[in-house]
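Try it yourself: sequence plus 3-acetylpyridine adenine dinucleotide, in.
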Amino acid sequence: MSEQEEFDVIVVGAGVGGLYAIHRLRKLGLKVRAFEAAADVGGTWYWNRYPGCRCDVESLEYSYSFSDELQQEWRWPERYGTQPEILRYINHVADRFDLRRDIEFSTRVKQAVFDGATNSWTVKTDTGKTVTARYCIMATGNLSTPRKPNIAGLDSFEGKWYHTGLWPHEGVDFTGLRVGVIGTGSSGVQSIPIIAKQAEHLYVFQRTANFSLPARNMPMPAEKERTHKAEYPERRRAAYDTPFGIAGHPPPVKSALEASEEERQSAYEAKWAEGGSISFLYSYTDLLLKKESNDTAAEFVRRKIRTTVKDPKTAELLCPDNHPIGTKRLILDTDYYETYNRDNVTLVDIRSKPIQEVTPAGLRTADADYALDAIVFATGFDAMTGAMKEIDIHTDAGLSIQAKWEDGPRTYLGLMIAGFPNLFMITGPQSPGVKTQMILSCEQHVNWIADCIQYLRDHGLTRIEAEQNAENAWVQHNNEVADRTLYPLANSWYVGANIPGKPRVFMPYVGGVPAYKKKCDEVAANGYEGFCLGTCAEEQRFAAN
Ligand code: N01
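Structure, out:
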């Protein structure tokens, strides 16, 4: 081999998953090198600095569990962490565990090629570096490839434009400006109330109305922090027994249709007052399974919108009418609907009157011109597959990730891909990652991968690859599980609907954390069932037959 630097493992990405991978693998005595496109750690929390950005999972839950000292010593000031607070936490983790020394920042991985003769990956970066390693771990994130629509004329715009997922570090002051926000997903809904307070006038260009619930953020009550920290080990364990990997919410016991109208209203009112999406979706057993049940919750939220928003026409436009509640990521907000009662905020319906072009002075829709000084694209990401497909990942056998995933992702357990030996993913498509508390899923995946690599080393093996049959069965199982729910009914990023031309495939595993973790654990306990293990390709083929 040439004089390329050699490692045991290359990790692509230094967000929450990549950082824990460095820590865990280093403990096995492995030589690890991570590459990160950003100038520092944090992944999604590094890039998404838009006003109002905050996690929608409570901060005592949304944190690492691997170190008890860490979880005891860190103080979360609010119920839900703000982006600056979470980034401060991630930086603290990087420093506390001395992770930066194995990371090359401002370095984007451009290519990863598998060589079957040496069972190793050769990785090339945009800084001209080439390194090799036995294993490559994609910790590239699910919502890390920001996308803005191709609207004609953007180059001619005389104002400034921004994407929520690539926000300037120095922040943006919208004071006195006429601002247009395009997109009303989580990023739009979180930023709109803050931008509205600064802007001279805010126009919100809405294509699809989304369901949003009050977050009820608050300073962290001292007693809550004390009891939570005292119970951390049990709570972390309990989280693995819940569908979304979040403990502390009593599971529902009956169908919404078994409750009387009065009972339902009082249950939904209590959840609305409590704040949070898990608690609301946990009102009844079948809100994500049965349309008639879901309708009762959806109608409750629509009534809330109508009573909050004073202008009836605006209220009606804000009422979601084309998807069951919870089938797109349920949004948590602070004063979102109230914001439309401000005199300086206008909701523009671009479903009936689409945007036609950006002009030098603003935006033109099918029926009007809007003069703007700034445009904010809150238009989301090429989710779940975008980051990996941007890298030229291929094998010496001529298989590329672009070809393999042409019709949508195919994986075994969201962890590996048939045809791509020794390549792991953290919270890849067809794993529950995005439908869970992400840090829990990152830890579960990293632990599984670390145990797997240790197993291979203990057995003198140098190669692992998902079997085609196992992958096919897992893809089929994913689809069957999703089809038993209401999720596929929504045009969401879960199905790639926000990216024109992207194959419409439901990508997350929605069978819940317990079933998924049980499967991963069983596969490992059975000597990595569904994977070919070996030292060379020939041996693997033999094992597979
Ligand atoms: O992106 P989105 P996001 N013309 O894809 C619209 C996580 N997250 O960045 O629905 C006009 O949800 C699009 O309209 P439509 C969270 O998992 C978490 O907001 O496609 N509009 C939609 O309204 C979340 O789900 C947190 O019709 C266009 C919006 O842009 C995920 O990230 C905070 C358009 C995109 O919504 C993504 O959220 C933020 C076009 N051509 C994000 N193209 C928290 O933890 C797209 N849109 C709280």
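One thing you can check immediately is this: The radius of gyration is 24 Å.
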